[in-house]
Amino acid sequence: MKKMMNFKKRNYAYASIFASILFMCVSCSSDDDAQVVAPVQTPGQIITSTRWQTTEVFVNGGIENKIADYPGTVSVSTWRLTAGETNSGTFEFRNVSDPEGTPRAQGSFELKDGIRILTFPNGSTALATMTRLDSGINEYTQSLPEQVNGVPVQPQNMVIVRVVHKPYPLK
Questions:
Q1: Direct distance between the N- and C-terminal alpha carbons of the chain, in angstroms, rounded to an integer
Q2: Looking at residues 140-152, what average pLDDT do you find?
Q3: How confident is the model at residue 85 (pLDDT cuts 50, 70, 90)?
Q4: Cβ atoms of residues 105 and 119 within 8 Å
Q5: What is the pLDDT of residues 33-75, one digit of tens each?
Q6: Sign of the C-alpha dihedral, residues 161, 166, 167, 170?
Q7: What is the CATH number of the domain that holds 140?
Q8: Containing H/E element for 51?
Q9: Does some domain include residue 30?
Q10: Quick one: pLDDT at residue 40?
Q11: Which member of 44, 57, 83, 114 has the lowest number of beta carbons within 10 Å of its beta carbon?
């Protein structure tokens, strides 16, 4: 009987060790087929988490490329909105032709119903909506004030301008 008890204890010990090893192997194994899926960013999150440079400006229904007509304004500046993932914060346009990137304009912004609203210190505003193109370029349709940072945009007030931005620095 004593041999039977020792045999049972030994088998129980072996079974426990085997079960422990099996549990550790299963719990420590990695699933090579599992893929990490990056969260999809909202347009507001993309706007606020990237530094941009304006590369094209179109007026008159997109017929005329007018980037050369906007020297020193947003068309030749980089900009970044600083708010993280919130719906409001500040923006700053910086001059990219200056090695120090001196500020050109600053103000506040708000994201409301998918529309970005920039408010300049003089109280004028610029509205923009964002679409992501297949090529990875972000395109905005903007209503710009008559002047941005003291530089005339167009003779009439609130002209519709299509502005294309790419991540900065350009590659």
A1: 82
A2: 50
A3: very low
A4: no
A5: 667 777 776 666 666 666 666 666 666 555 555 555 544 334 3
A6: negative
A7: 2.40.128
A8: none
A9: no
A10: 72
A11: 114
Q: What is the distance between the alpha carbons of residues 80 and 100, in angstroms, rounded to a whole number?
A: 15
Burial environment of residue 2 by CB neighbours within 10 A (0 to 12, 13 to 18, 19 or more): exposed
Is residue 2 one of the residues assigned to a domain? no
Is residue 113 within 8 Å of residue 102, measured between CB atoms? Answer: no
Tokens of 75: 């068309």
Residue that wins the pLDDT comparison between 61 and 78: 61
Q: What is the pLDDT of residue 45?
A: 64
Measured between alpha carbons, how far is 163 from 57 in angstroms, rounded to an integer?
Answer: 5
Integer CA distances (angstroms), 32 to 29, 36, 37, 53, in order: 9, 11, 14, 39
Average pLDDT value for residue range 110-126: 68
Number of domains in the chain: 1
Q: Which helix (H) or strand (E) holds 168?
A: none
pLDDT at 154 over 50: no
Q: Could you tell me if residue 26 is inside a domain? A: no
What pTM was estimated for this model as a whole?
0.40
Residue 18 lies in a domain: no
Compute CA distances 150 → 28, 29, 60, 70, 93, whole Å: 63, 63, 22, 12, 14
Nearest to 166 by CA among 131, 136, 127: 136
